[in-house]
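Follow-up to my earlier ticket, as requested here are the two runs.
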Amino acid sequence: MTTFDYKHEAIRLGDSTYVIDRNFPVDVELEARITELERDLISPENTKVTLGNVLGDIGSYVKDLQAELKNKVSIGDPVGWLEGARDLENIEFERSGAYVYMNDVDGFLTTNRPLRNIDNPPDAAVQIRSAGVRIANNLKPDGGFDWKTFMTAGGMIADCITSGKVRTNDVEIGDDDGKILLTGGNLTIKGGGLEVYSTPSATDNGVMIRGNRISTNFVKNPEFLTPPNGSTDWKLYSGVKYDPSANKMSIDCSATMNFIGIDQMLDIYHPKATFQALFRTNSFGGSTPKSARIVLYNYDRNGQQLESRIQTEVFSLYQKNLLLTMPVVFPVDTVRCRLWIQVEFDKDEEKAMEILWVRGSYDDVVSQQQLDMYPKDIYNLDSKPEVQIFHVTISHSGLGSGVYRNCGRVKFDQPFSPPGELGSMIVLLTPYGSKSVDYHATAYSVDRAGFNLYIRTLTSIPSGELEVHGLAYRAGYMGNVGLSI
């Protein structure tokens, strides 16, 4: 090839150029790299150019990819997203430029266009130095390369890693506020919980594990973490507003109001359940009563309404939070229900009432028949289970918010038998009464004679008494029936 026909063109060694073959009915264009350049300084028209690294156009690559996809479909071989991602990346890789620069400062630098191209500067680069490799596919506002991918002896940093399989000894996800660890075949979650759903959109009941508690909550969007949409979760009625900054429902009250609130439809799979809702009032004192209630409209598979279930509680005079708990035995043949969470406060006041969260869990999810399927040796006489139920009253002169207090040593009525090497002692504590939602109770240093009782306040509590119900049990074995966490 000579430059005789293109006197106006300037070419350099390593440039990419399009080669046009007009010997076909339709011109054929190919992209090629100038690999050799022999200049004739006396007669420039005789300069000889050698082309190499011929690259096909995008059309040919797309046709090849389509043919491969058709072939896979025809033989029944599933087309994986990973293979498609590889093919598309290969197309982009083959079409990218490779202008190489080496010096003692930049090391080995490859760009997609020449560095001296002022009109169309390079915006992708790979740089290799003794410290490692870094990759950029964009420019920063100042015109420098936006390096985002790094490979060094210390590891790899990237915005996204696409892979078919990752083989490693340990995986750590997150930071000090919350971590997920995968090591030695074990999954450890710190500062969070595990939620399992059977549908991609998490529309089924799901199972949630947090700490030592397993919940089969079936209320959708129970903590209002996402805005309610009225079709798949909560429907809001007049006077109810969603507060996205605090993930709660605020309710404007009026002197002529009746019970108002939110509702959603639920599928029912079990004859018994427990519903809970946490309410808060921003209006203290006064003679006007403040009420909260849970209502269930139950239906059979034909849409016929069955007997309803209602539970109502009234705030005490200076009560701020109210936890309403409603155990339910559904009418026979119930398959659907409409859950209403409502408040009533006959006074003109904006945001006077709030709904903080709503939960529903099935009772007796594990039947005795299912328990009988597990090995019987944990029920034999060697286990020697023992149980004690107790009540603790704590007198105090007032507690501030966020207080963590040791209330002293609690002794059991009778010491438990020694649990033995494989045994365990467990204490379950439940706050009780009007202040039950204002603090947590925890047992530490548990042995067969007693434990240390600690409380942590969630809000300020005026002087008075706090009540805690407790259950302590001992068994001559470790672990839980049918489940190990």
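Run two:
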Amino acid sequence: MSLLLQQIFHEIDRLSLPEQVEVLTYAANRVKLQISEAKPQDRVTK
């Protein structure tokens, strides 16, 4: 796991459970938004 991800998870661990839910929900919605806005040529295919 990258150092950045380790730092992010360390910070999330310091939050209360409701705050963790809020942060992770926000992050998931941002990822979904970026995926939905991506052009077909931007998407990685295997």
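The only thing I checked on run two: The first helix runs from residue 3 to 13. Let me know what else you need.
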